[in-house]
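Quarterly update from the structural biology core.
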Amino acid sequence: MRLIYTFFILLSLSDGFNPNSSGRCNCDSMQSVQCYRLKEVPSNIPSTTKRLYISHSKIQHLQLSDFNQMLALEDFILLASGTESVENDIFKTLGTWKTLELWKNKLRQVPSALPASLEVLILNDNSINSLMLDGNNMEAIAGPLLENNKLHLIPGSFFTSLQSFQFLSFSGNFLTKVPINLPKSLLSLKMERNQLRMVEFQDMKHLENLSHLYLSENLLSSINGAQQLTNLTTLELSPNQLEMLPFRLPVKLQKLDCSNNLIQKVTAQDFQDLRDLKHLFLDNNIVSFFEAGVLQRCSQLSNLALEQNLLLSIPLRLPGTLARLDLKGNAIRDISEREVRDIKELHVLNLRNNKISALDLKALDSLPRLRHLYLDGNPWNCTCSLLKAREVLMAKGTDVRGGQCATPAEWQGESWMSSKKIMRQCEHHLHLTEKSKETKKKSKPEDPSSIRINMDDDDYDYEID
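Predicted structure, tokenized:
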């Protein structure tokens, strides 16, 4: 019986299309319909349908008659269909709706008289250039998404009666200021890819619940006053035009991304009370000075990204909690035991594209948990003594990437980690001491499943635990 019922639903759908329409509709279940390449919203959709998804169509205008028979509809998604306008008050009588998604269309304004039952409103990738309440009741919505539109200004009065929003995203617009009078209930605010030149944190201090603030890809040259957001855990500022780190950051911060800026130095005052900081991104700046011990109070720091800067050496007295350290693309010439003796929990060390030609055995001994070492792009001087470092790394179970010889000429291009040619010529140097043998027996590689990092490459997603 169920198959027969489904057949009649499909038959009714096909009979309901405009004869000149070349589109198709399919029933995923008895309550969900998916359509594409239509010229209008299909008639004769079963009255029990709860979800209607239409994509890649040519539906220029939505009107009330399109939905008269859809009495049970809860979710309406219209994607990439060239829709320019919506009839006034079309949604006023649609009291069952929970989701309205109008992605990638040509809307110039937010539809009016939205149903009070609406919980999800997504209007990304349209041409919306102004915000007006216009009779809308948005109290049930967790937060409208208005990314990639043409907003230049959000009126201060817009949020007066909308104080229950938890999430707001205005990324990809033309805003020059963070909106004022934001809802106190806000947990996350996305303002990336706008034209912000400054942020007035004084106007945001009432956001005592805000935990995530995204300000990447703007024109910010400085950040001051962020400590007023007392519960902020994530602050993203990449890329902007910052010449120094933000001053006085919120003490509960767990992730700070200041990559792709113009920061030149890192000093102790920048990280005085950030004991909860776990992830710090300072890559792609012009950092040449990194004060010793600057991060020692960051007692939970596990990931530090310093690649593509101007550092001449590994920063001293880094926190012992570090699991990953990225130093690719600096001007580091060597690795000393003094520089790495405090980071015994380090699992991943990325030293690609530096100026290192040799490895200090004492430094390697100071990294007992090192599992991944990236060394390509360095001018290795492949003496037989360098192969002793190979033995130490093999005994640890460290996965080494790279290590091509630059000198001497006869070994140029060979890998000192795997070249049989080098090993034959240095065979008389390659005897392990009894101590080294004991180290190999005792140092069993850690179960990779217990290390939460991507083993494939040096780029991976840093997630807050």
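The longest strand covers residues 24-29.
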